[in-house]
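Sequence only, no structure available. Ideas?
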Amino acid sequence: MLAAECAWAILRAEHARTRELLARLDTAMKTGDGTRTGQRAASAIEVIERLQDFEETTHRPKGVVMLNMLRGRSSEADELLDELDSESECCNGLLSQAKTNLKRAETGDARAAAEAEALLQRHRQFMSVHLDKEDTLLHSQTALLLTAEEWAAVVSSISKEVHAAKERGQRRSH
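Reply:
I predicted one. Tokens follow.
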């Protein structure tokens, strides 16, 4: 099960990176004395974009491979996957709404900045719970349900998935 441990070491490192980006976002929102709302908003938007890019091009592609292998193995695993999908969609929505408000805040709209801050607090709470579930419950389900051969397939396909996602990201930015 070396492949499983390697995959989870990578995923946990990515969760640590996500937590680091969330902490940077929190710092960006709290930096300043209130007179620099636009500057704070611009800094926060930059961190949000880094977080979104990391999720889309690095973390999510790895998860897709593993989750596709896990889906359909047990009703408990399927319920967990559905719950994680729903939480992920919620987090993405909160982040997008916050980014929209922060763009308004860049022009000095203090109300939009306050709304963005409230959305980002909710996002941090949801994301913290979500990452903890992946680290504990999802890890347990994969350990129970995936074989050594399946883990080897997951690990070998992770690189391919990440490369394809990065290419998609580069095409979007051009």
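DSSP finds five helices and no strands in the chain.
Hope that gets you unstuck.
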